[in-house]
Structures
1.
Amino acid sequence: MPRSKTSSLSPNRSTFEQQAEAEALFTSIGDGAISTDEFGRITRVNPVAQDILGYSETELIGEWFPKKIIAITSDDIPVNLIDRPITKAFLTGRSISEKMYYRRKNGEKVPVSISVSPILLEGKPLGAVEVFRDITLEEEVDRMKSEFISLASHQLRTPLSAIKTYSHMLVDGYMGDITPTQKKSLRTIISGANRMNELISTLLNITRIESGTIAVTLRMVQLERTIDDVIKEVSMMAADKSISIELKNESQASISIKTDALILKEIITNLVSNAVKYTPENGSVTITTLQRGADVLITVSDTGWGIPLQSQDQIFSKFFRAPNIVMRETTGTGLGLYLVKGLVDTLGGSISFKSREGTGTTFYLTLPRTPKRKSTKSTRRTVTTA
Ligand code: ADP
């Protein structure tokens, strides 16, 4: 009979052996690894962590982790103790993963992807293990990718505007009479060019968000007016499917908020056009607005196909399209909600949804009536007040 292998959990292994094994494991991890005791004092550091941070083992052991290992945002603002992944892991008793920057001993800043797990014994924290990776290269590749998309999108805009201008001139008869068949073909060209234009805007906005260079111009915006404009823009698509669109203001008076008008419109356009697009004929879309304390709540509900339960946690991911939609509606990029999420964050708001497949979906958008000063998120953004 073959002898069963001795596992590290085997009771007949000595504590000494188990410790040696844990030590070897810790040292050989390909990412930086630091462990702490229950007070956050550093107890172990592997060679990769020393390489990334530029500190030797003796400089780190015994030090209080959050003080010695300085975390900063991309704007060089120190990350608050309460926002540090290690603090969150201690407070919640759960593993926390985040990206931020660490300050090396020589003052340089290094982007890191961090994952911290608390060490618990019968629910009580005994310490934590943080594993982190230098993501300088990934950030650089991302930056180059964004730069390329931005450049390509700008270059595509010029020929596209020529296509649009001349198609409009042809369809409006400025270049002589055209037959109904030619008119129909030209309308198809115009609608294709419009779609391409929207895609280019989406790509440009995404690169601006990802690079943290999106400009925010704050001014007072009348909410109903913005929503009415959006409804007008999607009304043709809704009429084609006999879908009704209704706007209800649940507050006593009309609502004005201090925000970026273009970003707000982009968010609402995406939500309302999705509601119309993913609702079958004769359905309805309802938009409500409500002023609640320092916030406004906007909901967009539809009686559409809904989002399957197993797809719900991926709905704001880049390029994601749920399988029930892909089989019905071939046009779409899966970029709209990813962009919406980024834009909502930019305005200091939040977004969530509830959906039931076959019944419908409601998106809940909360925005501050007056945005707080610059967010502490690790992105750069320009905020101006008009
Ligand atoms: P796209 O509409 O181009 O596919 P989005 O990012 O706007 O991309 O949406 C991502 C996916 O989320 C959609 O493909 C669809 O599966 C789902 N979705 C978004 N809004 C709705 C909605 N109102 N009803 C049902 N599914 C939706």
2.
Amino acid sequence: MEATKLVLSGKNPETFKGDLLVYCLEQPTKGKVKADHPLINNWLKAHGKLGEFSGKTGETLVLYPDKNQDEGFKVKRLMFLGIGKSDKKLGTSELRERCRIAGGHVAAQAMRVKADKIMVCLPELDGIKAGDVAETIVEGVILGDYRFLKYKKEDKDEPSYNGLNELRLYSNDPTITVRKNMMSGLRSAQAACKARDMANEPGNGWTPASFAAVGRDLAEQYGLQCTVLERADMEHLGMGGLLAVNQGSVEPPKMVILEYNPPKKTQTLLLVGKGLTFDSGGVSIKPSAGMEDMKYDMCGGAAVLAMMQAVGEEQPDVGVIAIVPATDNMPSGAALKPGDIITHYNGITSEVVNTDAEGRLILADAMAYGIKKFKPDCVVDLATLTGAVIVGLGHHYTGLLGNNDELVKRLLRAGKRCGEPLWRLPLGSQYSKQIESKVADIKNTGGPGAGTITAAAYLEKFVGDTPWAHLDIAGTAWNYTEKSYVPQGPSGVGVRTLIEFIRRWRKTGI
Ligand code: BES
Ligand code: MN
Ligand code: ZN
């Protein structure tokens, strides 16, 4: 799919000659739906009488204007899209999400009619700035327009749709701010789609070497610095966790490090993403039903690398380092065994009780190494780490744990603004006690209770005093809450939240 061209226009929408022109309309609390356009109001009156359009979320009405008329619309199709009841109680984040959802519905309709060029008139809503509307509608359209068809043969009867070529936004006040916000929305959405592309690749199409290739590509494109640690480097450095998980595999492990160092750097953020390209469980093998979904166990790694695309484009004045420890987790005669004791990068020894609790083993090395080498002001890791987070939060919230209230607060806020909500869970010595081992410093499972917290308690051992937050995206990286702009497969969760977090990073530090 080609990248969509984005235009902000203040030109009368009646003159737009494309395939689809969209008006987003609120459902009024009383009376009939209204628009601030006389011709549209006439149409709405006529159809309103038939009870066909009330403005409910996702409701659409498509009309075909007569192009030969001297007056009126030149577009092929005119669409009214319901965006739900106006409500004074809604905050900015809820209204932003409403616009994103509207954008997703626009994309679905554009796909249905195989539209090439479309225009969306930005609705004027109380309680949200025009820039926020532009940003989030663009996000919704681009995220909703996403498909992954690489491995699908072309269907002769049904010609394929190449996606939107041009998206025009109409605003009656097309300021520079609105334009800037619109472009921010585009960059965030494109980065999330990049993460989805990586995640959609199956285990045989996406290996640790694929992560290394993406890192090198991004480095070349945006002048970042990419280093890939190979097995020999890991042996030399003593990264016993990543090496242990990789033991049963024929694919060599990689640790991909991508650095963005701005000229006048103030602070450094370290982002670590779990890049487990397929998780069979290893010798503690998983049940076969649903195991195919474990190709998505690299979504954290995909998110942090994809996010670096936006960093490269936006060149913020804070340094950003992304690290992806990458391997698959396979059983074999050479594989890691339950009971084995390993030594992590920082010297901590760990008893591997269950080889399926592998994510924490590879993250531990990556975080300890990243903190020692880059001395970051804070660390955020993203990982599809525990099934337990799905038991607790379902597929609607990402689990958030951390040792610093300010960092946690900023991430909660960023997630909320992006429609990717996070929910904080506690840490504490009671939980750390669950991972005490009789034979090593710690063990890699903490018993049946609080699986998400004991996994985070394991990671906590590797961050020292550095402010740190952990996002457990096992419930949200795929099968995410059904939304118009989120496809059924991988969601790209975390990418937009991290971009927002970096955009809002204040120089004051944590
Ligand atoms: N990748 C899985 C976690 C997971 C499970 C993600 C289901 C998405 C859906 C992780 O490596 C894992 O297997 N965790 C174990 C830990 C347990 C053995 C302590 C789990 O959650 O069952
Ligand atoms: Mn596992
Ligand atoms: Zn895993």
